[in-house]
Amino acid sequence: MTNEEQAVHLLQTHVDPNQMTLILADMVRDGFQGSKEPFVSSILELWRTWQIKYLKEKAKIAIDEGAFLLGCIDETKTLKGYFRSSRPGQDATYEESVACLPEIFVQVWRHSEGKYVIIEGVCILARNPSLHPGDIRVVKAVNAPSLHHLRDVVVLPQTGDRDISSMCSGGDLDGDDYVVIWDQDILPTDWFHNPMDYAAPKPEVLDRDVTVDDITKFYVNYMQNDRLPQIALAHLALADYMEEGVKNEKCLQLAALHSAAVDYNKSGIPVKLTRDLKPRRWPHFMERKMRNKYAEYVSQKILGQLYDMASHIDAHSKPPFWSPLESPKFDKRVLNSGIEVDEELLSFATNLKTQYDADMRRIMAQHEIKTELEVWSTFVLSHSEMTKDYKFHEDIGRISSSLREKFRIMCYEKVGGKEFEHLAPLAVAMYKVTSEQWEIAVAAHHDVFVDNSHFQERKLPLISFPWILQPILGRIANESFENPVTRRGCPTHIQVEIPRGSKPKKIMASLLSPDVETSDGVKHAGNVLQLFEDSKQDPIDRLCIMFDETASSVHQTENITPSFNGTKGEITDLFFEVNDDVSTPSISLPYPNIQGKITIPAREPIIQHITSPALSTHSNSLDIRSRPQKYFANPTLPAIQREAHALKLGDAHAKKFHIAKAAGDLALEAGSQEEGEEEEIIDFGNNLQPSALDELMQLIGMD
């Protein structure tokens, strides 16, 4: 499952009853397989494992030239039915044999051609389960103009000595499904095998009214004498063991018993599985737990060969789920889409994910399903009702669909519509919340355990939550957003103007990294940036120590007058009073490694309260000390860049340091500008309070 084109073809060919493979095909086309998105990659591996499981256990094989269709009657009497008198002789030619076949009409949609196609020629018509060799009927599909209005159904004739539907395992047209195959390589050699008589025995008739005691007594007898599963397994084992296969006399008797057992609840006549019809040896593909190891043999027939092939593939397959020691890469096309996400939307997404995860875990516990991937995709590998596996696949499809629809409606109500412009910010928020939770969980796991020996998968956060908006995520990943998408009701925003170059083509391999390089190494998206070297010391305590320096150093700075010409080592750039509320509706700054324009919600006014280690103030005095230059050349701009970067990534946990100080104490922000570098200019508009600026200039002797 590494080739996208091949994956899409397989997913569209092997469509499951819930049509989840078509959704997976859309996700692959959106590039999520190429980006190795963890959820999509895991779902694809799960689907592959699920396919191998059913090939191994049920011999479930998809036929390209075939269809599974609902049966209906030909009301126009156009189609020719089955007549015993028209059966050809043993020496009949191919054309004579085809002319004697009963007719059907089939018009199905062909994905490869993109249109409806009318099937013509010799076909197989069957219905599950088919135990008798006469249950597989050979028919001829014809083009009947009067039936062109019927699509995606198989139309059966109403003429003839016997209806074809009853010849197919005793079926009828009250909602039965039929298998139609027009692959000429699968046609049987015997086209006109005698069908079995599926007439149900006459039920017992009472000469009085039915009472409650009669009903309860019959129910108990039915539970005690229901032999349908045992008969079906015995037929499978004997058909494989006997040389004649299903045409063996014992297999024919078991087929008749199976039909009678199906009608037991209607006829009230129980069936008995005699000892001579019970198999003594069982093929290995049935995986029977036998006390006597000699009772099992290795089957050399087609079912045994398929089982061995599937077992070989399964043994060399990697597990469908990634290990916590791996670091799954969530798609950066969504994380760095440029779509604005505010704090309130992140909070809503977090709360909604908590509810979603609780509902998902409840479903997993109720049905004993191991992973959320199986619930979301309906490709369940094991569950509590394995004896009703086919029915359960339909049930889990309804359960999974209802779960996704429930939370989609909650998303619609939150943003006020189903349009992309409304849902895109919420989809990004949901994806970011999921990514952050996973990174935190994996980091915590690495801190506690060195290896994977103590790993418990159920303790990891769930990741299927954002995919309830799968079409929205696909569109986000494949579109560029020059003007950020906003949602109705957003508060005032701060716009960060960024110099724009030529717009790069959005390709996965060339996406710009949101990582930030610091003195301690590279900080990745979602990680908390440490703005102080000593992370063990509280930033406020560190500043308080600087404010409490002895006053002896004050005299060294009385005659120093800082200049503002931007030369190296001098006090430049910005001056803030700590208590001033500096609101910034617009910030223009050069931001490294990113091109374009982003919009950041004004969650709180951006106030930079970072005091240079080379500067300290005390009692309205300026103290300039000799500190190591390695702290930072310009402390203000990197801090603002970090703030903008944290908001750009939607980090709800980005730290802001607010310094409380007594009245009259001021924090002076300064730094040095390296020679030869282009000066970075931050424009805060006209929001600085004149009183604060005057007080600051008076402090340093510039009034």
Automatic annotation (TrEMBL):
Residues 343-480 form the RDRP C-terminal head domain. Belongs to the RdRP family. InterPro entries: RDRP (IPR007855), RDRP_C_head (IPR058752), RDRP_core (IPR057596). It catalyses: RNA(n) + a ribonucleoside 5'-triphosphate = RNA(n+1) + diphosphate. Pfam families: RdRP, RdRP_head. Keywords: Nucleotidyltransferase, RNA-binding, RNA-directed RNA polymerase, RNA-mediated gene silencing, Transferase. This is RNA-dependent RNA polymerase. GO terms for biological process: siRNA processing. Its EC number is 2.7.7.48. Residues 1-309 form the RDRP core domain. The keyword Nucleotide-binding does not apply. One of its GO terms (cellular component) is nuclear RNA-directed RNA polymerase complex. PANTHER family: RNA-DEPENDENT RNA POLYMERASE, RNA-DIRECTED RNA POLYMERASE. It comes from Ajellomyces capsulatus. The keyword RNA-binding applies. GO terms for molecular function: RNA binding; RNA-directed RNA polymerase activity. It is an enzyme of class 2 (transferase).
